[in-house]
Amino acid sequence: MKNIRLLKDQFISKIFLVLTLLSISTVVLIALGLFYKSIPILNSTSLYNLLFSSEWKPFKEAFGFYPFIVGTLWVTAIAIIIALPLSMLTAIYLSEYAHIRVRKLVLPLIELLSGIPPVLYGVWGVLVIIPLIQDKIAPHFVEFTTGYSVLAGGIVLAIMIFPLIISIVIEVFDNVPQDLRNASLSLGATQWQTVKKVVLRKSFDGIVAAVVLAISRAFGETIAVLMVCGNLAQVPHSLFDSAYPLPALIANNYGEMMSIPMYDSALMFAALLLFAIIFLFNAVSRIILYRIEKRNN
Amino acid sequence: MIIQPHISIQNLNVHIGENHILKNINLDIPDKKVTSLIGPSGCGKTTLLKTMNRLLDRQNDVRVNGKVLVDGENIYDPKVEVTHIRKKMGLLSQRPFPLPMNIYDNIAYGQRVHGNNSKKELDEIVEKYLRGVNLWDEVKDRLKSPATRLSIGQQQRLCLARGLAIEPEIILGDEPTSALDPISTQAIEELFMQLKDKYTIVLVTHILRQARRVSDYIGFVYMGEIIEFGPTEEVLLNPKEKLTKDYVKGFLV
């Protein structure tokens, strides 16, 4: 009897190990597959040119990804600049100040936002954000814009990622023991002092994790961004310029322009690039976090 | 009997949700004495302690009726400003909760939140209160290291020093030794004995021997009511109420 019980335990642990390895291996397989498919273009063009040339003329086999990389970074940066303060303040309000009834009412609504399909955000961006930028905001700054711009992409993305940041950060705040807040409050600290010096400090790791996740999500978001960014292969110089982020490039062209030599490989390289950006970004933030943790303990 | 109450609780009722946690509490906490609140787990003694510095405010579904007068001021008056009341009291919780910062900053925290940023004064305060809880010699070389690296007994003394550093008049202890080993417990108890000349101390405990060792007065709380209140020896050795007798009879044996 006893032996069967133990055998079962061993068997199950082996199975779980295999399943875990299987799920990790998909990441490796994706990376390898993308790399394999990018080999032709890597052979024909130097890596430096691929990354830093702005010349995008597929018919002449000139593939410079610089505008796309910069476009991706712009849109993501704008999104996080808008979303981070908004979502942090919302999370702080809901977790530390709001009455439980307000929280119970608002939180599901915010979580609902993250369930809305990206294409709806795209449509909403086209219907609301684009005209708003074109008619109300941009005329104060530039002479002409279509409204299809990195700013529009950033705003739409910001709205898409802030529910994510809010729900994770609230979760993190909930893990800060109430007694720790009480310790600060009982010394006569105000609510805000307690939030700033105790709650935020205690949840720093979790907040960073939430932001990393949100940024990764923003890097890869495709359809909504594609609908509002204008999709011009140019390096944006202002908030109101169009851009062409990497995911949009891949989604717009894959399967359509395959008759052009090297295009297939170029798009695979774009995918590899996106993969590498997200991978590097995650790795760097983990290292930073690890350093901070080590310093504090 | 009590000439000058420091905290005076009058007709206090606390409901949490549907539960009537504290029922019509009337209690005068004497000035510059140690008062222990004893009673079985879940009887409401911790809640009673938390009403004294309004730490219940943040809990959901709490209704507090009645008055708690501290130095004659009703702290449940809607117009009252809560931080200056809390500043009058140092709190010691069941487990030590050092703030997420280094040892020095933990002690300086209270002073800083009230606007004292003078390095020289803070240095003096940190040393004075760490010495006060006999922690200075153990930590003076690592004031800048995180407070969480201290042992749990050291952390509890740190938390006491942190509370004292805001120069309160009252110390509230919520079973402050329940997570500590006997030696750390003894250290905290001895500190209370030293401190009671200067501070009014309210101590929640379920260790009757501890209540007897440190306190001048004892209040017995049962099912949300104050059953008996009086000088320590009287309540423990010669209780008037049957409920108190049943609760303390293990102590007499």
From TrEMBL, chain A:
Residues 69-285 form the ABC transmembrane type-1 domain. Part of the binding-protein-dependent transport system for phosphate; probably responsible for the translocation of the substrate across the membrane. The keyword Cell membrane applies. InterPro entries: MetI-like (IPR000515), Phosphate_PstC (IPR011864), Phosphate_Transport_Permease (IPR051124). It is a multi-pass membrane protein. Pfam families: BPD_transp_1 (PF00528). The chain crosses the membrane at residues 12-36, 65-94, 106-130, 150-173, 206-233, 266-289. The gene is pstC. Keywords: Cell membrane, Membrane, Phosphate transport, Transmembrane, Transmembrane helix, Transport. It comes from the Bacteria. This is Phosphate transport system permease protein. It is found in: Cell membrane. Belongs to the binding-protein-dependent transport system permease family. CysTW subfamily. CDD domains: TM_PBP2. Coiled coil: none annotated. It comes from Flavobacterium taihuense. PROSITE patterns: ABC_TM1 (PS50928).
TrEMBL record, chain B:
SMART domains: AAA (SM00382). It comes from the Bacteria. It holds the Pfam family ABC_tran. This is Phosphate ABC transporter ATP-binding protein PstB. The gene is pstB. InterPro entries: AAA+_ATPase (IPR003593), ABC_transporter-like_ATP-bd (IPR003439), PstB-like (IPR005670). The keyword Acyltransferase does not apply. Residues 7-248 form the ABC transporter domain. Keywords: ATP-binding, Nucleotide-binding, Phosphate transport, Transport. GO terms for molecular function: ATP binding.
